[in-house]
């Protein structure tokens, strides 16, 4: 289970809007000075992001919480979002090249580009359809795992110097 800390902004119908701060692993990496990822990360400031999460623990507005998301679900969603469009692009380009070599030999490159673009956009619509279907499934939804208890500091029997009782 992947976990992230956040603050509950609003509660609505069993769902909580939780604000999280995007973090980078570059800060704790020993190779950050010589890494291209660290350079790119420095160009974009850390931003906060709001998520809708199931609130089965009864968190209230203003509570600090731990959000959780199933790792297997995240991996499947990543494959869907990243791999399917690339495969659509490649398949469309190959189809365009094949059609160009059979039908119009002088326009193979143009048909390859058009086929790749068409395959990419068709695959994006497939991704959108499946992501809408998956978003309703329990394992693909973030959930609040626990509320972080607020620390209470109790101070008793302290005498302040330099002040008079009045």
UniProtKB/TrEMBL annotation:
The chain crosses the membrane at residues 79-100, 106-127. Keywords: Membrane, Transmembrane, Transmembrane helix. InterPro entries: RseC, SigmaE_reg_RseC_MucC. Pfam families: RseC_MucC (PF04246). The keyword Oxidoreductase does not apply. This is Sigma-E factor negative regulatory protein RseC.
